Amino acid sequence: MEGLWLAALSGLIGGGTLLVGAAVAWYIDIPQRIVAGIMAVGAGVLISTLAFELVEEAAADGGLVPTTVGFLGGAILYIVADQLISRRSRQRAAGSPQLDASSVTEYSDGDAIPANIVARRAGAQAVSGAGLVIAVGALIDGIPESIVMGLSVLQGGISIPIVAAIAISNFPEGLGSTAALKRGGSSGRYVALLWSGIALITVVASVLGYVAFQSASPNLIALITTIAAGGLLAMVCNTMIPEAFDEQQALTGLWATIGFLGAFLLHELT
Fold it and tell me: Average pLDDT in the 177-182 region?
């Protein structure tokens, strides 16, 4: 029973920082440049985590075949979800009337809305889509990550490096996604339900990792672990780094390096 509670605590700590990041972004008007810098640091943390805590250990314990299959599978899973959401956002934007700034659009209620407002709404939809993509990435990699945290309890208690790295990297995911969703016009209720649901799923997945995989083979554990790693890397490359680069430009690489180094030192010192 103690192990069950430790697994739940691991998931709560790891997923809880998603909620913290979301709350900070919603209630504090953080300049987008700072949000971008935090996202760049988070990208570095994530890359370090997947390299030293996930892929390396999966290959050592489960072998190259499940590691390769899981890593590619996680990346493909994320990319497919990314494309589906991005396509939906583009379709919404394309459905908006394309007018010059001096014209207006007449709606059924008789109100005339200037074209520049229509354009801003279309842009807001695209921004909101980017925020949702990050949230989907957090969900895709969060489930196997949380299962890994539950598995670590089986191997001798809470793994401080894994839980800390996941918690640190989840904060900018919640922050960056919520900042984009807020700029895109999403409601506070929608954002709260979105991240509360994802955080709850991480707790359940962590408990599941402890309960359901007690007799799992090293190959299966390696597969699950590297699905998380593949999804992480695809999300970092497709979403977090481009979003950060839009604001930070040349400094993006420096912030990502600092994040990577911090997570690496945590791995080495614990």
Answer: 81
The pLDDT of 118-147, averaged and rounded, is 58
Cβ-contact 168, 24 below 8 angstroms:
no
Residue 270 per-residue DSSP state: -
Question: Which pair of structure tokens corresponds to residue 18?
Answer: 């998603």
Q: Compute the average pLDDT of residues 88-116.
A: 48
Place of tokens 């909620």: 19
Nearest to 166 by CA among 203, 129, 193, 132: 203
Token match 């800390």: residue? 164
Structure tokens of 166? 């996941």
Amino acid, single-letter form, for residue 251: L
Residue 157, helix vs strand vs coil = coil
Listed in sequence order, the DSSP H helices in 155-187 are: 160-183
The residue behind tokens 């995911």 is: 173
